[in-house]
Amino acid sequence: MNSFEGIIEFVAVAETQGFSAAAKQLSCSTSHVSRQVSRLEDRLGVTLFARSTRQINLTDAGQLYYSQCRELVTGLEQANEGLNSQQITLSGTLRVSAAGGFAEEHVAPALMQFAKLYPEVTIEMDFNSRMVNFIEDGIDFAIRYGALKDSGLVARKLVDRPMAAVASRDYLHRFGEPTHPNQLKQHSCIITNNDHWQFASESKPLSVRVHGRWKSNNSNAAIAACEEGLGIAYMPKSSLARGLESGTLFPILQDFWGPGNSSWIVYQNQRFLPLRARLAIDYLVSYFADWAQAGK
């Protein structure tokens, strides 16, 4: 074959599963992508995609060709980037979707430091917990907490976030301090994401269903409610650090604190990330590398 024309478009369609989505990734028209793929099929003499009105799937020949072209395209892009990596000036807009107190209090400041390193980069942070469509919404990556569903997205762990149970001294004075997670059923609890709290025990994990007078999907509001004596909170310890340090929150049930979940950087595909997004992701991973050692 004398030309690589159409291979980049072919790989984009295979990975986004659509001509329109591939066009958005490549910043070109849908007709251009379709034309390039059709010409590639003509040159190869095979059908690479089985097209229908609802979906596009790789044929057997297309799957084989894609597996060989994928690394080819990756290598080409890395070579292009590496050629001028020492002289590159980042620019453009980095769009990040995030949610929760961790993103507000820790990720945002980290990205501010990243912005100082690259003055030509504009950063847009959308604090929203909804599931984003990375292509349609123009999001480079998202910060998410908890177990991730197998959605075909790429995920890089930022930090593990062990749990802590706390209450205000006023609440404990009025209602007493529980000594076992099962006793939480008789207490008012601050509920955030769910009302089933997972604790650690010597034999096996312990799940306790709780109830309470305050429910909020905003961690700062939940912490404030706990400080005001409205109930017991069970959240990632990193979110409670200020209250624990200042004494407005008192630790309880310490022998039963669970390992919690992790916070992740989630994005659609490494290949189609702009360099500013890749560098930002690497920066965040490095920034939080010593999180566990710091006792967060």
From TrEMBL:
GO terms for molecular function, please? DNA-binding transcription factor activity; sequence-specific DNA binding
GO BP terms in the entry: DNA-templated transcription
User: Which key words are in the record?
Assistant: DNA-binding, Transcription, Transcription regulation
Bilayer-spanning residue ranges: none
InterPro entries found in the cross-reference section: LysR-type_TF_proteobact-type (IPR058163), LysR_HTH_N (IPR000847), LysR_subst-bd (IPR005119)
The UniProt entry's sequence similarity note says:
Belongs to the LysR transcriptional regulatory family.
| Protein name as annotated | LysR family transcriptional regulator
Q: Which organism is it from?
A: Vibrio ostreae
